[in-house]
């Protein structure tokens, strides 16, 4: 179960990062963070394909890509309560580092390092 949560968070992370890259100016710190998280996600996928059934991973990954895209798109369009935005895209930008760390810690836990 922990693997699938980390897999969802990895797709969610890179969807937010892609929106950040399109809307904000790219900087060195963000590029380094995205590179480190990319390496961690590759290690997560290697773990998944060596310890889980490959076609289940592909089906679940496809589902997670769709759900994470819909979540980020909903935040971009706006979720309003009493005329004020409930969740802004800037809130998601602030969550990039904690999500990346959570994925990394989960990956380290799964590999047993």
Brief overview:
With 113 residues, the protein is mainly α. It is built from five helices and two strands; from the N terminus they run H-H-H-E-E-H-H. The chain has helices at residues 2-23, 28-51, 54-77, 89-94, 96-111, and strands at residues 80-81, 84-85.
Task: Describe this entry's structure for a reader.
- With 113 residues, this protein is mainly alpha-helical.
- The protein is 81% helix and 4% strand.
- The protein is built from five helices and two strands, in the order H-H-H-E-E-H-H.
- The chain has a two-stranded antiparallel sheet.
- Strand 1 and strand 2 form a beta hairpin.
- Helix 1 packs antiparallel against helix 2, helix 1 crosses helix 3 and helix 2 runs parallel beside helix 5.
- The longest helix has 24 residues.
- It is globular, with a radius of gyration of 15 Å.
């Amino acid at each position: 179960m922990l693997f699938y949560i980390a897999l969802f968070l990895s797709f969610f992370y890179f969807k937010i990062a892609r929106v950040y890259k399109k809307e904000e100016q790219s900087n060195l710190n963000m590029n380094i963070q995205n590179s480190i998280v990319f390496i961690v996600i590759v290690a997560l996928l290697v773990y998944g394909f060596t310890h889980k059934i490959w076609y289940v991973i592909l089906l679940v990954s496809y589902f997670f890509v769709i759900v994470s895209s819909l979540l980020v798109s909903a935040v971009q369009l706006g979720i309003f309560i009493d005329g004020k935005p409930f969740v802004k895209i800037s809130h998601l930008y602030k969550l990039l580092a904690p999500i990346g760390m959570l994925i990394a810690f989960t990956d380290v836990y799964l590999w047993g390092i």
